[in-house]
UniProtKB/TrEMBL annotation:
Top-level division of the source organism's lineage: Archaea
Membrane-traversing stretches: none
Record domain SpoVT-AbrB: where: 8-53
Taxonomic lineage from the root: Archaea, Thermoproteota
GO molecular function, one term: DNA binding
One Pfam family of this chain: MazE_antitoxin
Organism listed in the record: Thermoproteota archaeon
Protein name (record): SpoVT-AbrB domain-containing protein
Amino acid sequence: MVRKELGYTITEKGTVTIPAEIRKKYKLGKGSRIEFVETGEGVLIVPVIPLEDLFGADKAIKETVYQMIKELQEERRKEASDEE
């Protein structure tokens, strides 16, 4: 993984502009959701992918996968907090 450092300023209201190349690469646009994950080295900004984008209309599969994703996110948060 190539580490690319970009520096930006946080506004008075706490907003930061995500660079166009990052928005395009991760398909982020107006209304896209992101998650902040604290690690021992800093903060990661992670795109949140809606389940509808991953799966068809089968509700049972969506519920199962949704629960799996929630468990993985919780595990990731615990791992990140343990690194501190």
